[in-house]
């Protein structure tokens, strides 16, 4: 893998079977077996033949309609979903925010959840404890909330804490899935600044978002996924414009029809 | 900076059933602190609400002790007081030990399905989640030992003439037996955790299985009650040899028999190998099954 690359994806395809059964229970399985039926499954080809090189220090935005394979791609880069074919090489430590409020225990305080989040990301207890105050300060919750149970938080406060944990792990590669909408305008400004700072330190960020204006503002590269395939890759302005056109018109630009 | 940074990780399709075990185990070991802290935090979350808090951990086995003492005196009558006290002690230590296995298996079986969001957000050896449950079960089990020892000491002082032994060197074998118990229970919890991902009613079924398992184990009855070919029941039960050996050390003050030891080792090895294989070969599939 070349030195300058943070992520190298070669011919990546990911497909998986999903169970169409309403309930996955032993009872249903036995009833099915007694009737001689087979499990109804459907194969989903989430990502098809994707090749992508992401150099260190770049911010890549990923756009695409629901079900285009964006989240699957992010999870495979994080090492959560193994590729069906192809290869992914990742150079550096990954921090993820792929599902909001992950691992959050509702009964524990925000501070405890920050520690738990750091440990889940692979930090040691002492490392994360050194950073807890900084992360809590970044989340900047109203007075006293950080030591109250998370179940008392509003949605916005909840996502602010989750976001603060993810961006303050000093990751080499930061994977964000639909996390840009966290918080109000002031927090958004702060998180954008933090992401720019990460970029300047030659860290790499991958963002999945439907907030196209924010993507244009943050990213230096964008790709458009459609039904698991990469339709276009290039300057964020161009890509989001094409994507918007597609969304409004509802059909693919003529140049992509052959794909 | 975190250990393991600037390391190139490669994700490729898995052709073999098992991922490379050496990196898997070293990653598991590197992240063991996550499992211990997760266990502490979930215990904290659970007992935060109740005012009795940690006291509950000791009170719970004490209440159990009272219930089973009543059971023993009602069934056996008050005639043979000293004997019934020994029986009570056998039931107590058997029950406390069995409850460790039960907690470990029940908590572990749910750990993957209830850790869904954690699994979808981060890549880590999934066996850390059942391992964390095993730690929780151990943290609930340990306070019951002083409770048992106090009851024995009080019993010896009050009844004066019990058949219970005082201190013997054989007690040093207890940590070894408990280690085999942990390995067996953890192996079984890996097996049931995997099953629960594919069949969500496994944990429901498990609560009945555990109840029958308790009655089939030498806890409410003594292993000596079985003679001849019936003794095979003791060895067909993965927890049978461990519970008999455990009771033999605590109650009789004697070292476990050779067949008990072989039984313990056999079940510990089989369950950790089988459960581990079942779990690790399928854990890469968990993220799409959750």
What is the secondary structure topology, with strand pairs?
The complex is a heterodimer of chains A (259) and B (290).
Chain A: E1 5-19, H1 26-34, E2 41-55, E3 59-63, H2 70-77, E4 85-91, E5 94-97, H3 110-120, H4 125-139, H5 155-167, E6 173-177, H6 185-200, E7 204-208, H7 212-218, E8 221-226, E9 229-234, H8 236-249
Parallel strand pairs in A: 3-7, 3-8, 5-6, 6-7
Antiparallel strand pairs in A: 1-2, 1-4, 8-9
Chain B: E1 8-11, H1 21-30, H2 32-48, H3 55-76, H4 81-114, H5 116-121, H6 128-141, H7 144-159, H8 174-198, H9 202-216, H10 232-236, H11 240-252, H12 258-282, H13 286-289
Q: What overall form of chain A do the CA principal axes indicate?
A: globular
Number of helices of chain B: 13
Helical percentage of chain A:
25-40%
Structural class of chain B: mainly alpha
Any idea what the shape of chain B is?
globular
What portion of residues of chain B belong to β-strands?
A: under 5%
Assign the structural class of chain A, choosing from mainly alpha, mainly beta, alpha/beta, alpha+beta, or little secondary structure.
alpha/beta
| Overall residue-averaged pLDDT value of chain A | 85
Q: Which spans of chain B have pLDDT < 50 for at least 5 consecutive residues?
A: 1-5
Q: In whole angstroms, how far apart are the ends of chain B? A: 32 Å
Mean pLDDT of chain B: 85
H/E order of the elements of chain B? EHHHHHHHHHHHHH
User: Roughly how many Å is the radius of gyration of chain B?
Assistant: 21 Å
The proportion of residues in beta strands of chain A is: 25-35%
């Amino acid at each position: 893998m070349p030195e300058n690359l943070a992520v190298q994806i070669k011919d990546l395809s990911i497909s998986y079977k999903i169970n169409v059964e309403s309930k996955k229970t032993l009872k249903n399985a036995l009833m099915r077996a007694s009737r001689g039926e087979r499990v109804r499954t459907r194969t989903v080809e989430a990502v098809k033949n994707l090749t992508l090189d992401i150099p260190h220090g770049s911010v890549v935005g990923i756009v695409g309609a629901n079900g285009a394979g964006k989240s699957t791609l992010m999870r495979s880069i994080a090492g959560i979903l193994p590729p069906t074919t192809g290869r992914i090489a990742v150079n550096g430590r990954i921090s993820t925010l792929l599902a909001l409020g992950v691992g959050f225990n509702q009964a524990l305080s925000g501070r405890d959840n920050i520690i738990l989040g750091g440990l889940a990301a692979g930090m040691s207890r002492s490392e994360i404890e050194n950073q807890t105050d900084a992360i809590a300060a970044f989340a900047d919750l109203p007075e006293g909330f950080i030591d109250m149970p998370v179940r008392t938080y509003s949605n916005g406060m909840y996502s602010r804490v989750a976001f603060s944990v993810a961006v303050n792990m000093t990751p080499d590669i930061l994977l964000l899935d639909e996390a840009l909408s966290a918080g109000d305008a002031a927090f958004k400004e702060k998180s954008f600044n933090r992401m720019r700072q990460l970029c300047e330190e030659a860290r790499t960020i991958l963002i999945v978002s439907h907030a196209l204006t924010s993507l244009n503002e943050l990213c230096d590269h964008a790709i458009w996924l459609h039904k698991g395939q990469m339709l276009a890759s290039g300057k964020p302005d161009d890509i989001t414009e094409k994507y918007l056109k597609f969304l409004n018109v509802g059909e693919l630009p003529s140049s992509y029809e052959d794909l | 900076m975190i250990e393991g940074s600037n390391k190139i990780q490669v994700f490729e399709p898995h052709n073999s059933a098992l991922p490379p075990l050496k990196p898997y185990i070293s990653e598991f070991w590197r992240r063991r602190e996550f499992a211990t802290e997760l266990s502490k935090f979930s215990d904290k979350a659970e007992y935060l609400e109740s005012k009795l808090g940690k006291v509950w951990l000791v009170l719970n086995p004490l209440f159990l002790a009272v219930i089973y003492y009543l059971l023993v005196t009602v069934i056996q009558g008050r005639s043979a007081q000293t004997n019934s006290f020994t029986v009570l002690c056998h039931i107590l230590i058997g029950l406390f030990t069995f409850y460790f296995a039960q907690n470990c298996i029940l908590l572990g079986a749910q750990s993957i399905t209830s850790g869904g969001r954690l699994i979808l957000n981060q890549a880590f050896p999934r066996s850390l989640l059942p391992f964390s449950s095993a730690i929780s079960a151990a943290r609930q089990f340990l306070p019951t030992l002083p409770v048992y020892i106090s009851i024995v000491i009080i019993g010896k002082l009050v009844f004066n003439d019990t058949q219970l032994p005082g201190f013997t060197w054989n007690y040093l074998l207890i940590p070894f037996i408990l280690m085999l118990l942990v390995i067996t229970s953890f192996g079984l919890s890996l097996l049931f955790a995997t099953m629960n991902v594919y069949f969500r009613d496994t944990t429901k079924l498990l609560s009945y299985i555990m109840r029958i398992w308790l009655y089939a184990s030498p806890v409410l009855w003594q292993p000596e009650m079985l003679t001849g070919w019936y003794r095979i029941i003791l060895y067909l039960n993965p927890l049978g040899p461990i519970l008999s050996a455990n009771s033999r050390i605590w109650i009789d003050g004697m070292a476990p028999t050779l067949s008990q030891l072989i039984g313990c080792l056999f079940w510990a090895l089989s369950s950790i190998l089988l459960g581990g294989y079942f779990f690790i070969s399928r854990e890469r599939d968990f993220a799409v099954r959750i």
